[in-house]
């Protein structure tokens, strides 16, 4: 595949030398497999996704991040609009009375709520909370707007920032005090409609992870202990980071049941003229998605972006030589980028004359651009370009005449390969256990553990307590919708009671 | 134009009767010309743009608002991307040290800053401010990112919420404690580049007002007294509300000069290898735009939306009769909406069976939908539809065969008519004055006053002081770029000194 010029050209040897010479200062100092935490902190900075900020737990999202976010936003926003879900914007601020209306809910969020108490030099009469999520912000108005069955379903979404003033280990994207997300809040006449939407939204979240970010996820239901505070049940897509052996809750789609409806008096007159209570859902995904992408695909050269979300899918780099027709090379690079752009790819050429080609290779590898195209004198002579894949470094010479179709195929192939490789690694971490000893053994090997469980909350708490250590306790991630057969007589790995279902366990972010 | 069925059909008479009967409860109680403030508060609620919130000065932006915002956002975001301006996202929170770095700037904003002092039950070590605008949030990082001339220009934008805890007269969209906006922040090597961009962005703001919102604006420069705190000069687009005789600063594009660069040490090595300071701009428009649109176009029946920003451009309403083929009418309505949607219009049909056609007319008039299409038995028989314009109530029968092209023409015509009508009204309010007496007389008649001015800050302050009254003082709105000839010897209307330029004066929001 790599064409026939690998060993036979002195020009190539020169090129190689030059690269090495100029590559200094661009690499990561930590290796992903040796010191994952350090590697992650470095790669989000060097890949220009994030800049650290002078308030702990807050991060600057740079353009390279925002372009990824906007691609996902474009997809998701269009999909929910097809479902007739409308965008709205509710205030950032919540009054304390409303915030505290749902007891379980506020218990879950209270420690993390940031409070505004002053404006200018004056104290406010009452402190005002900043939304950690908007259930309590929105639902008093649902109560006002919903009168009869014809006002249902009411389906709203908002794209906004939320604040959770956490004190444990801030991590860019994964755990930050302010983050961007969408939050959908819907109300229905019947539980059936709510149940159906929960899964429709969850499927969109699966798409974001699997089809855009090329990350395999498990769809399932959270345990009673892990479900959304105040809700009826929570579904999620769960990702896994092999390097740390930790699960990540990728996005959640909650059925809130009628609990909030009761607290906020969201009633309606049904078709029979009787008073009834609505059934509600809420669902969200956040910029956390981007952190998971970095963790799953990144390598020791930097970020690796799936083509579908990359701001730049193809970077064209001129490789001029002393005696070569530099002007012509630049022209062809420009034309190549133009052809690709006009064919619908996100392509750019890097014409900066103060950097060597080798420096540029490293730079764009660090930023994770899926495909690099190099054009030098030999390529001109052969009417070809050289394409180099970011994911596996494979090189291929592409005849100019078939540029567009081969780039298209390559990008599709990269997208699929990233998913396949991630899935293979993830699957290799899954371990089925049936006993407590197998469980602790698997946990010590950073496995994603699938175990038969009695489904009792006390047992989950007990597992948490028994596995508590420096690097965190094990907990349930989800009970997958796709349940393996549970043989009769199977016992819970932890309690020895009859098992009710298979559940994924592990440490998590 | 209205076709031949105005007076000759008993079906029509019935229709009329029915409408009146069911229209109760939908109208506005205040008239725009009688009690503008009341009318405005009512129309933003009844038109379903806004819901009042339990924290004063905060408002819920409902889907009808967000769809308008998203249209403008789509336009502006695409245009700035063409200019190679990249989106980013900086934190909501600012540390006090950074916030206070630029003295003039913080003086301008300090009284309105909201402070977070607590999280959960704990006091924060240092209070943290919520961004009123992001100059001081961003520029420490500009200083870090900008090293050499090749790092310039640096051109970033963000779509976000900001908070200004104002105490004077909160008004939906126009003056709210939290609002949505975009803020662009750019840095250049030279003043020339900065100057050029200021005007390019101002032209985009003109487009938003004139071409999207159908509102005439005046481009010009703010006075020293009214310019952005800490900046070099401010340009703006100024709109005018004839009913209140108040100007509205529509959007601003500031050249910050090198003032912030000095404070935040944003230096670079220029092409000659010398240390130099960047030139900066910042520019913003906000959800205020939507308030101006409501004020300018709305009438006693409700909102009037320009077609280009309306979520629904055409509403199709079935007008069934007792003896008519209702099923066929509904089918044709559905097909009509479908044809229009497929032709790229935002069209919907209202099939609700618990509302009369007349109620629906009023409902969609309240919401400001530009064009209504009614389809009844007679329309079926004649293979036509009846179209009714929101802006001037004109009715026209459109043969089904030319539906798409006539709707296209009608919407274009409505867009233009709204602009023309608004411009005519605005222009009728402009009054040229040359003396103090003429000035106070014009002010009492709610005019938009164009006067020769000596351009001295003390004189402006003096005018403010002398016109201070219950309904607010007069101030400069802008000095229009489009300057009428200033005859030699012309004196300032207020100071009697030689006039330097023509300037617009008035009360303002």
Automatic annotation (TrEMBL), chains A, B:
Matching Pfam families: HGTP_anticodon, ProRS-C_1, tRNA-synt_2b
Region (Disordered): 1-20
Residue span, Aminoacyl-transfer RNA synthetases class-II family profile domain: 91-306
Keywords: Aminoacyl-tRNA synthetase, ATP-binding, Ligase, Nucleotide-binding, Protein biosynthesis
Any one Gene Ontology cellular component term annotated for this protein: aminoacyl-tRNA synthetase multienzyme complex
The reaction(s) this protein catalyses: tRNA(Pro) + L-proline + ATP = L-prolyl-tRNA(Pro) + AMP + diphosphate
GO BP annotations, alphabetical order: prolyl-tRNA aminoacylation
Keyword Hydrolase: no
GO molecular function, one term: ATP binding
EC number, UniProt record: 6.1.1.15
Record's compositionally biased regions (Low complexity): 1-13
Protein's recorded name: proline--tRNA ligase
